[in-house]
């Protein structure tokens, strides 16, 4: 099977393990976890991570206007 996470067009996906880091991010953006955009646990980009429902994933992608764009997603079933 092909590992899509190794493709050059798939951005880096990192599960935030530290609850303090998640809380700091939520406070910085003044949102709750349920307000974050969703990503399914079965998404091929998450296949190599151990993401569980309720985790927050940081996605770092290249941007034309900024060097790197960072977005956060809530893992759902």
UniProtKB/TrEMBL annotation:
Its EC number is 2.7.7.6. It holds the Pfam family RNA_pol_Rpb5_C. Keywords: Cytoplasm, DNA-directed RNA polymerase, Nucleotidyltransferase, Transcription, Transferase. It is an enzyme of class 2 (transferase). Belongs to the archaeal Rpo5/eukaryotic RPB5 RNA polymerase subunit family. DNA-dependent RNA polymerase (RNAP) catalyzes the transcription of DNA into RNA using the four ribonucleoside triphosphates as substrates. This is DNA-directed RNA polymerase subunit Rpo5. It comes from Halobium palmae. The gene is rpo5.
């Amino acid at each position: 099977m092909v590992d899509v996470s190794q493709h050059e067009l798939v951005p880096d996906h990192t599960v935030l393990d530290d609850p303090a880091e998640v809380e700091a991010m939520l406070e910085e953006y003044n949102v709750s976890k349920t307000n974050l955009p969703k990503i399914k646990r079965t998404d091929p980009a998450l296949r190599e991570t151990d993401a569980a429902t309720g985790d927050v994933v940081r996605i770092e992608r290249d941007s034309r206007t900024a060097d790197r764009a960072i977005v956060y997603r809530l893992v759902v079933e």
